[in-house]
Design brief:
19% of the residues lie in helices and 0% in strands. The chain is an all-alpha fold. The chain has one helix and no strands. Pfam families: YacG.
């Protein structure tokens, strides 16, 4: 009986984590979010520039102009 293992012994591929927006349990369809609403809120923040990844500092000349 190789296929009769109990379902509680199956290890999930991803650990359960709370939604990064509201803290509710995440849903499989919207992982790592709990709903389409929270997923869309996060997407809007990326598209509007609220989230930003800093780049290298811009070097300036002595007169204050950038070297680019």
């Amino acid at each position: 009986m190789a296929g009769s293992e109990a379902p509680d012994k199956i290890t999930p591929l991803r650990p359960k984590r709370p939604c990064p927006e509201c803290g509710k349990p995440s849903a499989r369809a919207f992982y790592p979010f709990c709903s389409r609403r929270c997923k869309d809120i996060d997407l809007n923040r990326w598209l509007s520039g609220a989230y930003a990844i800093p780049g290298p500092p811009i070097e300036e000349d002595e007169d204050g102009r950038s070297s680019e």
